[in-house]
Amino acid sequence: MAKIIVNGGCGYIGSHTTVALQNAGFEVVIFDNLSNSRLDTLDKISEITGIRPEFEQLDCTDKQAMQDAFSRHNDAIGVIHFAALKAVGESVEKPIMYYRNNILSLLNTLEMMEKFNIPNIVFSSSATVYGIPDELPVTEESPLRPATSPYGQTKIMAETIIRDTVTANPKIHAVLLRYFNPIGAHPSGKIGELPIGVPNNLMPYITQVAAGIRERLNIFGNDYDTPDGFCIRDYIDVNDLAEAHVAALNHMIKKDVTVEIYNLGTGHGLSVMELVKAFEAATGVKLPYAITARRPGDVPAIWACSDLANKQLGWYAKTPLEETMRNAWKWQKNVSGI
Ligand code: NAD
Ligand code: UD1
Fold first, then answer.
1. Which ligand gives the minimal distance to the CA of 233?
2. Residue 314: inside a domain
3. How many other C-beta atoms are found inside a 10 Å radius of the C-beta of residue 296?
């Protein structure tokens, strides 16, 4: 069984990807410092797949700890690097913390891959690298824009660091995955997104309002230049997103990849109001909401062209939105004990 190191594998996307990897026959070892996740995610993963992933509790910014762990797992054929801090607002307040965590963890990972001859890396990038795009949908050729937050900057920098590393060391192969807006949870309701404190992102806010944890959803602006005036995003089911990592690894194993970049979205934009209505229709739960001011820094509209991932990776977003909504709600009900 091919072994994959999953940095940040206890987190939201990492846990779903671990499930997908195990189901596809990969052996997974997770490296995570649990700064934004919980140890019992390992139990939940093993309840879903019947396999408990190996676990190393470590901070990827700790070079010695990384070296020790990589030496124990030097038979791995690849790394998926999810480990990062991701709260955009917090990154503006604490830039050093974000640069240190997100950049150093990547540098250590690449250095250990070189040291232990581990050839493949899949990296979690983001649609944030496109800023406010001139043309929609965005393709991988669309220009990158300077990010408006240190978080976004770390994604642009990380892509550059990986490219330069691959150029200097052709034994390393990389796939950069630019995620659009991941939402939903595993159909079992056992794993999902665990926002700590007040959620910044739309979907966890919606499910918390539905659960009665928050009084109402604040919709940030209804005066955008879009058909209904609300912001538009490309919401991608987290299970579909997880499958893309398996597809990327299989692609790298078969083909001589240098650096490849893929947008991961559905190819369809949905407005905030459309998402709210889809949640209500799928769950039967009415969502109280209010229209408030625009959120500074918000992109009015963005959605992906994912044709390249469809063609090269044979990957498609296939989960119907209704199912994604039901899974998100099932997860929230489990977390809240409803
Ligand atoms: P998450 O916070 O749920 O998961 C990240 C995991 O990494 C957590 O388990 C955390 O404990 C761990 N981690 C963080 N820093 C670490 C370190 N220094 N050492 C070891 N472990 C560390 O986040 P997520 O939503 O699963 O995001 C995964 C990746 O995808 C991140 O790189 C994020 O920037 C990127 N991304 C996420 C989204 C999104 O909307 N969720 C969108 C685009 C890109
Ligand atoms: C945000 C980040 C982005 C990051 C992504 C994933 C910003 C400006 N962008 O993207 O860099 O990669 O999260 O972590 O923070 N909305 C509401 N009410 C809410 C929450 C959100 O109306 O309570 C709206 C927003 O205005 C937006 C949409 O819902 O139009 C989606 O918001 P969100 O889930 O935060 O994602 P992004 O802004 O796309």
1. 2
2. no
3. 9
